[in-house]
Amino acid sequence: DSGVTQTPKHLITATGQRVTLRCSPRSGDLSVYWYQQSLDQGLQFLIQYYNGEERAKGNILERFSAQQFPDLHSELNLSSLELGDSALYFCASSVGTGRGEETQYFGPGTRLLVL
Amino acid sequence: QKEVEQDPGPLSVPEGAIVSLNCTYSNSAFQYFMWYRQYSRKGPELLMYTYSSGNKEDGRFTAQVDKSSKYISLFIRDSQPSDSATYLCAMSDTGGGADGLTFGKGTHLIIQP
After folding, report:
1. Under 8 Å CB-to-CB from A68, ≥6 apart: which residues?
2. Which residue of A has its CA nearest to B42?
3. Which residues of chain B have pLDDT under 70?
4. Residue B36 contacts residue B44 (beta carbons within 8 Å)
5. For residues A109, B32, A95 and B106, what is the CA-based torsion angle, rounded to 10 degrees?
6. DSSP state of A115
7. How many beta-carbon pairs below 8 A join chains A and B?
């Protein structure tokens, strides 16, 4: 158990809908990262938040957004869902900004299925 | 050309064998190299972390980095059925992944009892 929690574990929804995925980092970690894992693209970095502020962006679509709250939990919002958004979404956390020899700890993931 | 190439396997070996897993990459700015293990329906778990070139050993696991060839390896000695999983290499130029980690697609490893 990494100490990172994600809810829900599974989510089934329809095209065009909007969903929210939630992540709680390990106790004491200030950075939260979101990743998408699909069979064809592998594990891809979406976005990073550090202590409430957006710090880095990866391959995140404009239909997706995220935020980190004062209690450091984070939410990833996915809107206007398409079939291709079906994937595993992972949250990871690290103690600082992510520089140097810092480890990212991954949560168990949320499996999203868009029908 | 993808930034990180990794043979997806599956790679099937008998219990007790030495396993060699590899990744090649194209971005010469990468300095931090990691191996993650991912069991089915679970999140990735960090196995090894190496900075720059060289070797690092931890129990049955050895990580090697050859920056001149842009090639990294993970060796597993005395492989066990519990080592059956997908192994992902990951890299970063800024350390722990301040701008996110770049992953290979993973190699599916099967250790036959």
Report:
1. A32, A49, A50, A51, A52, A53, A74
2. A108
3. 1-2, 94-99
4. yes
5. 10
6. -
7. 80
